[in-house]
Amino acid sequence: MKNYIVLLCLLLALGACHSNDNAPANHVRPRTAVQITQIGIGTICDDLVLSGTSVYLKRNLVTSSIAAFITNVYVKLGDHVRKGQPLYLLESKERKALGNDITKVDPSLKSFGLITLTAPASGIITTFDKQQTGEYVLEGTQLCTIAASNDLAFQVNVPYEYADLVKPGKKCLITLPDKTVYKATITTPLATMNVTEQTQVLLARPDQDLFLPENLLAKVAFDRSEPGNQQVLPKTCVVSDELLKDFWVMKLVNDSTAVKVPVKTGNKNNTSIEILSPTFQKGDKILITGNYGLADTALVTVTQ
Length: 304
Known about the structure:
It is a single chain. The chain has 304 residues and is mainly β. It folds into three domains: 32-45 and 228-302, conserved putative lor/sdh protein from methanococcus maripaludis s2 fold (Beta Barrel); 48-54 and 151-223, Elongation Factor Tu (Ef-tu), domain 3 (Beta Barrel), CATH 2.40.30.170; 59-148, CATH 2.40.50.100. It is 10% helix and 45% strand. The chain is built from three helices and 24 strands. The chain is rod-shaped and about 120 Å long. It starts with a helix and ends with a strand. The model is unreliable at 19-25 (pLDDT under 50). InterPro entries: BSH_CzcB-like, Single_hybrid_motif.
């Protein structure tokens, strides 16, 4: 009898252990903590930036109208001059021979033999051939050169692939090394191309008269953004494969489920990116954090 009781206890213990092994386990699927944002509307600027070099297209030569002595020089190399501003005072050899006694003979001859040469146009003195007072010059001698300020332009080397974008009449922005920015317009292109680089030279004329040194390097920017407003998201919303070929976002379809939505991207900057397709609804919720590495359909927990 005693052995029977011991055997019965062993059977009950084994049955209890077997029953616990078959008990269902409660598995909880993990959820990823995420933050969300909504689609925005706007345009991201996409500028084509090329280099430009300042050049004066028109130069005015100042020459001596008679054979004379240079009595006075009122300007120097690099000066900005205005049309009609005095540049040189010339004294004819006859006046030089008579000296100042000519006014004693006849006061009306005070200006006899004196010629003031003035600037034929506004601009910058780029060459200064004669600057010594007392020097004798022949008729027609070149004294200086004035680069006309209203004919300042920037030569822009444009790759031919951008010929449809950079063409006559196109507006652009010129940024100088000191960060000042001026509006300009592209004019008629030159007829030659750089054989090696396959670039064409076009001229960007500032919309206002500028006094700048020649051969100044500047940045010339052209806006190639698509017209109209586009869907815009923060860059962290968009995920891509390793080859940067396919792009997608994770869209929240209910309180706890996010699904993968392939997208086509457009222009971008340091913080934002355009979404060209598909078209999202105004209230759609897009994951902005926690979206990297999620499966096509994933359980998530939205945090603030």
